[in-house]
Amino acid sequence: MTKQLLKSLLVDTPAGSPEGLIVRCLSQRGAISAAQISKLTGLARSTVSTALTGLRRSGVVVESYSVDEGIKGVGRPAATLALNPEAGTCVGIHLSLDEIRVVVADVSHSFIAEKTVTLGLDYPPDRAAKLTKAAIAECYDENSLPVSGLLGVGVSVSGPVSPEGVVQRASIVPTWAGVNIRDVFGPVLQQPIFAANESNCSAIAEMMWGAAVGCEDFVLFKIDLGVGGAIVQQGRLVTGIAGGAGEFGHISIDPAGDLCRCGNRGCLELYASFKRPLEQIERVKGFRVTMDDAMRMAAEGDVGALRMIEDTAEFAGRGLGIIGSIINPPLIIIGGRMALAGDMLLNPLIAAYERHTLIKSRDVTPESRTRIIKGKHTENDSLLGAVGLALSHHGMLK
Amino acid sequence: MTKQLLKSLLVDTPAGSPEGLIVRCLSQRGAISAAQISKLTGLARSTVSTALTGLRRSGVVVESYSVDEGIKGVGRPAATLALNPEAGTCVGIHLSLDEIRVVVADVSHSFIAEKTVTLGLDYPPDRAAKLTKAAIAECYDENSLPVSGLLGVGVSVSGPVSPEGVVQRASIVPTWAGVNIRDVFGPVLQQPIFAANESNCSAIAEMMWGAAVGCEDFVLFKIDLGVGGAIVQQGRLVTGIAGGAGEFGHISIDPAGDLCRCGNRGCLELYASFKRPLEQIERVKGFRVTMDDAMRMAAEGDVGALRMIEDTAEFAGRGLGIIGSIINPPLIIIGGRMALAGDMLLNPLIAAYERHTLIKSRDVTPESRTRIIKGKHTENDSLLGAVGLALSHHGMLK
User: Fold this and answer.
1) Residue A283 backbone dihedrals phi, psi, to 5 degrees
2) Is the model's pLDDT at B78 over the cut of 70?
């Protein structure tokens, strides 16, 4: 009953009703106070209060007490309101190089169930859709979850996705080029389907539940074995006319450089990802080294591993310096597993950014400076964002 | 009377009244039909019709017949509505290296009067404000214009301007670093003051009355003796946290390259502006050559001048390729005097863009392609945009 009610409030109710506005607001923001709801929705405090009474009575909204991590202070934590985790579920799907990951999450974005579908390289869309459907069914079955509470399906794709849902050729899964995600999953899953590039999903995760909560304008820069990114302006993802916005890994910094998988030369990804540095470390050490190994080695004082992190930071900072001269964002969030290196990465990266970008911190007031910080979600970020995509599509993100 | 009425409608009326909405819409869009007004304001056709009757009776709005350049067709041109040019004036000011230009324009953005105040390098803000005030007074006096009809003053600055109006150090006029434009001109001119970077002003001119009319998302790339730029997203200028967005000339494409006036190395401006190519032509020819000369020489088949235009196009296309991989905009407008070279510049520039950017035209549907076109206002664009800034500040641009 509660599930059907939440679904109808999120999907079917006119956007203008107080109940619809409040539920959509909570689906985007997680746990917030009545005062914040009033501010974010533009509804009068008394209207919010009346609507909340009804929503709490029907079990859609619950009261929760939480101390916000970002607020240091003493005393009783503020009472906040959140969607009832039992009121509905969302599915997040991440399409990567050779496998598909599926999660079922409640509306408070806690993962309830998770499956990985192993497919091998160049898997065809039709097969992927069928196996994904089976994996979702298993998730619901094994956890005795009612499928009727499913609110939507978000799909994270390792490549540019057009605003209409078409995967572009520059994707790392070549068999998906030109394929519309909605056309593939819609008929099979019989649910509302939302799709975005994986880095855009990461940005949604940071915006809804991470390092960018409350921030309407920021840039996400992901450093892992590849480089990805996302731009949020006025609270919305910038997708670009063909879904190619935020493709920071493919900024060409050397037109005479090595060939990149995208078909261009000298792309930033070749220098600012941790792929080549890992190869360098392995060559010197003579054994296989993972990203986790390299970061542990650097933390323990291995000069080679540390130098590789610093070199990656220098190139990432140089690329971000270019992005800074173009967008001059208030906030840059460093994501990807490399962010786990913390200050070993951030300090040289910030120094390189300062050197290469136009506006120098020393020349502007503190409030006009670009802040560069570590992301909160450096693992599972795309899957979490896919869940957020399904929730937020009923609200701020269009 | 009409002037006071327009001023009150633009400045004082609540934004929600039909008359206020229509007048602000016309101040941004120039001459449009009643149907377009209805679409843009969201007002019902009947509400627009009633309000227009009143506005025409009071002389604020007039009917005009014009054939839109963009629409090819035969038959009677459509009746359009515009603000009465006699209903008010705006002042546009452009602060450049060693002089200040002042224009007075009517609300249909026709220039009525123009003055240049010659100042010499490193002119101080106080002196500039006083001389500008005198020049404005002369403009009104000589043309018997009533100062009471002045709706606002827009200031275009050759350098980054923060959202609060502070000129940043990277400006080409060092004496203005850290100066707030509103603080300088506000007390002297006793008028509402709006300020923006000169390329942002050019973008406003293109958006309101040029090549970007009706386009909510585009990039402006100015090629002249320097390189400038602007980004418009969702109908608004992206200023950046410190006013540094759109500074395409200072994308560093070679960290080991020559020193730039901004203090960085290898900035795009050093390669994609026409400053160095002009020096090359002069060196070969042995006499002084202006930009106009060089373009005429190229059009007449001079291989050296043509090569210099092509080389500039190659670097501009490479820089735009980077911007494309970051923003993937639907439209790129080439401004600055170099745009007057037309296809001599655009053809190699488009080829270079295609080579260096991630999303290739051949891989996406025609409607997902980035269009690259020449701007409409390649001269007086900053001044025109300063006028637009004063008008549009009462509407779409915040």
Assistant:
1) -60, -45
2) no
